[in-house]
Amino acid sequence: MRVIITGANGFIGTNFCEYLSAKGIEVIKYDIDDNFSLIQSNISQCDAVFHIAGVNRTNNAQDFIMVNYGLTKKIIDLMISCKINIPFIFSSSTAAVDDSLYGKSKKMAEDYINNFSISHAVPCAIFRFPNIYGRYCVPNYNSVVATFCHNIANNLPLAIDGDGKQTIELAYIDDICHSVFKIMKSMIANPREYVNGQITYMKSTDTIDINSLARMISSFPSAINSDFFLGGSSSCERKLFITFLSYLNYEKLFTLGIHHHNEKGDFVEFIKNDEFGQVSFLTVLPGQKRGGHFHLVTYEKFIVVSGQCTISIKDMNSGVSKEFFLNEGDSLSVLPRTTHTISNCSDKTVVLMNYVSSVNDEKNSDTYYCIGGN
Description:
Layout: E1 2-6, H1 11-22, E2 26-30, H2 37-40, E3 48-51, H3 62-81, E4 88-93, H4 101-120, E5 124-129, E6 131-133, H5 144-153, E7 167-172, H6 173-189, E8 199-201, E9 206-209, H7 210-218, H8 220-224, H9 235-245, E10 258-262, E11 265-273, E12 277-284, E13 289-295, E14 300-306, E15 309-315, E16 321-326, E17 331-334, E18 338-343, E19 350-356, E20 367-369
Helix pairs in contact: 1-6, 3-4, 5-7, 5-9
């Protein structure tokens, strides 16, 4: 499959290019500095057009008409003259209903696309996008998320207009790419369903007030600089966290681990989260045993990454004992109030990954050792 993407160097365009390329689709990239002949020479060999190029800020008001409407008309007129009826996907805006020149230019483009779709039976899709956030979005332009992420990543203060109680609707760029990609495939498979001039409002996935957004993003650096991982209590929080990471220099993504060592092996704390629990890695040296304890409320799971071991368990209530032999890739869940001991009877170090349902807290520990356990 082969597609043309206009505005390929912009925030949305760059993400679409990467998303479609990852799906094995050949992308012809067109941007403001390219000659229109790039589209002219390739459009007849393409399966779809993603028209994302647009102007939303300019010192010359006529740029709105020339680009948002003019370039749209130019591409469609080319499709008409060459009798090309491939899906045409247009990036509009919720501002298309506004009385601003920007909104009017988008509405003019929408109307031209609708007339083209109906009169020439060409599948077209018009998307009015909400506030989109994600990697590559330019700060201090028109995205509060990008500006907040940039400022926090660079230790700059946040400027909040008004009392910060105003809410915004947000949509994550990867969700937008996924949704539009699905519709593109549907347009190719069922073109007649899209010859109706329909305008699609892409739904916002989250609504948040500015103060809450600022607090959330401001908390992200501590999640990186400690072993406490911010998995996020919501999908929005996780997506904002991933977005924030894209504004950091790679050096800031490096952290020193919490490493415990004794004569029996190593224990390295990897991820902690009060809601999720904790993930760690541990080793047991040849001939050694680790564990020998139980938890009252905490659930554990072990998986062998490398080597072999046995895990002995004993139910505290019934007194029933079991011993399990684990090879690489084998796992065992350990319920609360079950003593468990890991033994390495081989001549090679065994490496395990360990999940516990609560964070290890020495001041309020849920670990109770049997005689000789550790």
